[in-house]
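Re: weekly structure request thread

Next one in the queue (264 aa):
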Amino acid sequence: MPDTDALLQVEHLSHSFGGFKAVDDCSFDIARGSISALIGPNGAGKSTVVGLIGGALRNQSGSIHFDGHDISRMAAFKVARLGLLRTYQVSREFGRLTVMENLLVPPPNQKGENLLNVLFRPSVGRGEDRMLVDRAVEVLETFGLLSLRDEYAANLSGGEKRLLELARAVMAQPKFMLLDEPMAGINPALIARLDSHIRRLRDELGITFLLVEHNLDVVERICDRVVVMAFGRTLAEGRMSELRQNPEVVRAYLGGGLDERAAG
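Done, posted below.
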């Protein structure tokens, strides 16, 4: 049975590609209302675990429970409907839509998408549309993107696309956000903005976060708990300051010091 104190529980997860076992009996919990990280050297199995949790890959062995639901073999869109959203290593904005239009896509159960409302009660959809636009304006202002509301998303910088991706996810009212390398390829100023937004969303909206991240300075700065993977398994768990002193964790990072260069 899943732990009622954990929003996400991964138990004895295993997954193979052909004869290669990418994940091998991996288990960990993510506490409700926490900011946690999943780290490990390249090839540790992190991306496979992310794909299994988000429903992009079909689970072969073990179980995944989210908020009381068994999502082990659930399709990605059904997982998202439960409130578990993920972002990707490469931003997946709708490039031919404006920034504002990108934010109006995710809200669930929009009345204007109901055929009966379109045909017989169009005012219902129009009223909701106005409320969604007002909410999108608030979200864009919070993320510092309001001045770009009419810009095509494809024209944004890499860091701005990361902010847009986070803002768009907020419009879907998630319980849990799985961020796959959110700090990759962006400048230090935008990294500081992103980690500030992540902490604010946890504190103000109660969103739980799991980051797959190589920037260990960010991990140490904002994460309550860290799960370390190596060779497809959970190697250790704890705070980053503790893990830096763990000889097994240090050895897993290619035998070097446990810093950002070794983790890349």
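The CA atoms of residues 123 and 135 lie 19 Å apart. The chain has eleven helices and ten strands.
Next request, please.
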